[in-house]
Amino acid sequence: GASPIVLGIESSCDETGAALVRDGRLLGQALASSMDEHARYGGVVPEIASRAHLHAIGPVVRAALADAGLRLADVGAVAVTTGPGLSGALQVGVAAAKSYAYTLGVPLYGVHHLAGHVAADTLEHGPLPNPCMVLIVSGGHTSLLLVRDVARDPIAHLGDTLDDAAGECFDKAARLLGLPYPGGPAIDRAARDGDPSAVAFPRPLTGPRDAPYAFSFSGLKTAVARHTEARGGAVAVGDAAASLQEAVADVLTRKAVAACREYGVRALVVVGGVAANSRVRSLAAERCAAAGVELRVPPPRLCTDNGAMIAAVGDLLVRAGAPAAPLDVCVDPSAPL
Ligand code: KG4
Ligand code: ZN
């Protein structure tokens, strides 16, 4: 018969997400965000995030069920993000997921947040090609992975950021440019009216002697700081935003496509919040087309944190017959990749 309907819950940062997935199909979803409450502090405040999750979690689960036209009793398994993320924020989602699993008498699955970002793409484009290159670009991670068989083979980890993540770079640079939090979407918007060749920002770690798949973004943030200092109050924000976005998109896509070429991989999957960036998407499309590589990027709403991506992993685990997590499973705020 049909696989069970999986309820997925995400609460690792500032988004409270819930969604229902069955057999690789998204049935319904809902999302609440505490983003606006953090804006005046310029970044996510963990205590505020936890409290917001606590208020939102019940309503968000009910809204996801309503969106799917389902009742709680229809849920056959529960999946929840156990890490990495903010400890208190994760604990709210995990406590809720345990309660649902226990009261419904259905299995509980702990999900790695980054596996969720990768699986998000399967809801839009079907099973991942085997092998595929995966570029994960979020607020906390920038990693290039060679994925041969998600279920069986371990993942080959080709490179990471040595300092800031790509999203972190956008968030910090936005602050320097006087743009609101979160910085990524604000820079994307400001860049529309800017000239991407106006400022010659560096392309870190792209020299012939540099590690080919390592990333570094803290120098770019410093370059933006120098640029704004040098111009006093008279920075052309659109030009700076467009130029920074061009530099980040250039480095990310150049390395990802080079990795596809070196390893003979014909598909690139770009996921995580920064995959929502318009220039990352267009430059990746250009360069993949030129290299004969198939590009897969989820629609923007599935790139940033959401419940559907967690439900998608739960659905894969259920169908693979993976063992369920015990009801005393703990959060793992610094879960390794
Ligand atoms: O994946 P995500 O929602 O949360 C984490 O797991 O970190 O990613 C959030 C990050 C933030 O740094 C945000 O500024 C960035 O993704 N982001 C963007 C865009 N939308 C979100 N960066 C650039 N352009 C965007 N359109
Ligand atoms: Zn994320």
TrEMBL record:
Substrate binds at I136, V137, S138, G139, G140, D171, G184, D188, N277. Keywords: Acyltransferase, Cytoplasm, Iron, Metal-binding, Transferase, tRNA processing. Its main location: cytoplasm. Binds 1 Fe(2+) ion per subunit. Its EC number is 2.3.1.234. It catalyses: L-threonylcarbamoyladenylate + adenosine(37) in tRNA = N(6)-L-threonylcarbamoyladenosine(37) in tRNA + AMP + H(+). It is found in: Cytoplasm. Fe cation binds at H113, H117, D305. It holds the Pfam family TsaD. GO terms for molecular function: tRNA N(6)-L-threonylcarbamoyladenine synthase activity. It comes from the Bacteria. Its cofactor is Fe(2+). Residues 26-311 form the Gcp-like domain. InterPro entries: ATPase_NBD (IPR043129), Gcp-like_dom (IPR000905), KAE1/TsaD (IPR017861), Peptidase_M22_CS (IPR017860), TsaD (IPR022450). PANTHER family: TRNA N6-ADENOSINE THREONYLCARBAMOYLTRANSFERASE, TRNA N6-ADENOSINE THREONYLCARBAMOYLTRANSFERASE, MITOCHONDRIAL. Required for the formation of a threonylcarbamoyl group on adenosine at position 37 (t(6)A37) in tRNAs that read codons beginning with adenine. Is involved in the transfer of the threonylcarbamoyl moiety of threonylcarbamoyl-AMP (TC-AMP) to the N6 group of A37, together with TsaE and TsaB. TsaD likely plays a direct catalytic role in this reaction. Belongs to the KAE1 / TsaD family. This is tRNA N6-adenosine threonylcarbamoyltransferase. It comes from Streptomyces silvisoli. The gene is tsaD.
